[in-house]
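Exercise 7b. Backbone tokens:
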């Protein structure tokens, strides 16, 4: 990468001019309407489940916003400009400075594999990879221009490594020419990144539409020599107490594409700690590297231990690192379950007055019952947050376990779908996130 910079110093004025032109782009008035439509449709779509409780979901809204407001550094722009198919994908990682740094440091592996069926072409443009993670960049192209909703569906690997997968839909428009996205493969428990990533996927409107279709297959070569040995490990092993709740931060591993930090919660804590609102890593210059927003933000080890993932500063090589946090969403352990009688349309127990049951309906499509909750919440920290409040698993009065296949949200309302079956009321549902908090000033020296 240094060679690239030295040989192109004369091009910096042009790059700066290019950046200025990009900054002056006027966002079309239709984008706002597309965002609203994407939000409305996306909230009703089936939320994909992954192995980890903390897997994040790529929302169509976020991708539309990124497409409308791409602002990337001249260094990254110049680098990917010479890689076919990758220049337009920079916007997909624009909110992750660790991935931008990886690209600046020549970490992208171009691929360029394509398959075409029924007028739709899928191109695997390139990958970013290290020992814990592979991010696949892809492009969908509508070759015959037909009006149809098309996105990736049923994404998996032919070889069943221990991993989780995060991907999403870029939009649900019927009129489109091409669109880009990423698939994030996260390897767990010592599972090795393979030499050949044997990607399987289906392409269509939704999972039901592609049920009988064959998988599209891509054999993606991974140059493991490019990242061999590129990680740094630090033993933190420090405990903090916030409002009586003990939290221990264990080993921190810095990879080129992300940072993994082990966190353990004292089993004797009186509260269940869900998520940190503002946890971040800060260097000696005050530059912060936050959690992963567009991908997998964490993984569960067991009931009281997890790994949190942060944007990587591997290529920054800071002299000092600090862990900072001020607010944690948490709830008393004796308030983690709620009871609902769907026949009587009553919420029999709730953690507080903010969560109420406002309706019990039935889906015309498949006859599922829909529990509609309202969560009243005026905390500024939650202004733009959509809560996935409840675990997908629930029990009936006999103690038998069932599983919901779908949830949805719209504004302050949350929908929970109950498959058709014989249940004994009331149903017991478990809270997995809630907008009540504990607060404190965490600042730990980590390097």
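Sequence design result:
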């Amino acid at each position: 990468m240094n060679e690239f910079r030295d040989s192109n110093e004369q091009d910096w004025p042009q790059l700066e001019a290019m950046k200025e032109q990009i900054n002056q782009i006027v966002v079309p008035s239709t984008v706002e309407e597309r965002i609203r439509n994407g939000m409305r449709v996306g909230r009703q779509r089936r939320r994909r489940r992954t192995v980890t409780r903390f897997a994040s979901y790529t929302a169509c809204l976020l991708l539309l916003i990124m497409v409308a407001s791409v602002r990337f550094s001249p260094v990254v722009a110049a680098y990917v400009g010479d890689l076919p198919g990758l220049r337009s994908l920079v916007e997909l990682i624009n909110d992750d400075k660790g991935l931008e740094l990886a690209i600046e440091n020549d970490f992208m592996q171009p691929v360029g594999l394509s398959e075409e069926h029924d007028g739709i072409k899928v191109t695997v443009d390139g990958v970013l990879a290290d020992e814990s993670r592979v991010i696949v960049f892809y492009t969908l192209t509508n070759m015959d221009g037909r009006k149809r909703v098309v996105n990736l569906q049923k994404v998996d690997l032919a070889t069943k490594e221990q991993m989780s997968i995060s991907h999403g839909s870029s939009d649900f428009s019927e009129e489109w020419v091409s669109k880009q996205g990423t698939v994030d493969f996260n390897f767990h428990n010592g599972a090795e990144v393979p030499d050949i990533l044997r990607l399987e996927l289906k392409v269509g409107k939704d999972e039901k539409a592609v049920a009988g279709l064959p998988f599209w297959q891509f054999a993606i070569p991974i140059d493991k020599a490019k990242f061999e040995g590129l990680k740094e490990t630090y033993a933190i092993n420090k405990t903090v107490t916030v409002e009586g709740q003990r939290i221990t931060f264990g080993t921190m591993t810095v990879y080129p594409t992300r940072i993994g930090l082990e966190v353990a919660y004292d089993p004797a804590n009186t509260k269940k700690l869900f998520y940190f609102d503002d946890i971040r890593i800060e260097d000696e210059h005050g530059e912060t590297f936050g959690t992963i927003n567009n991908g997998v933000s964490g993984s569960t080890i067991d009931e009281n231990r997890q790994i949190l993932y942060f944007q990587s500063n591997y290529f920054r090589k800071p002299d000092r690192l600090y862990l900072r946090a001020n607010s944690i969403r948490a709830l008393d352990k004796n308030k983690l379950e709620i009871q609902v009688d769907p026949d009587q349309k009553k919420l029999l127990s709730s953690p507080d007055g903010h969560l109420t049951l406002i309706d019990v309906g039935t889906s015309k499509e498949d006859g599922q019952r829909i529990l509609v909750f309202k969560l009243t919440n005026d905390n500024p920290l939650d202004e733009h947050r959509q809560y996935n409040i409840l675990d997908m698993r629930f029990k009936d009065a006999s103690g038998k376990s069932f599983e919901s296949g779908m949830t949805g949200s719209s504004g302050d309302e949350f929908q929970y779908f109950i498959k058709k079956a014989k249940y004994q009321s009331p149903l017991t549902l478990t809270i997995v996130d809630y907008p009540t908090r504990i607060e404190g000033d965490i600042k730990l020296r980590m390097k």
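Instructor comment: Residues 334-431 form one domain. The helical segments are 2-7, 12-23, 30-44, 60-68, 74-80, 97-104.
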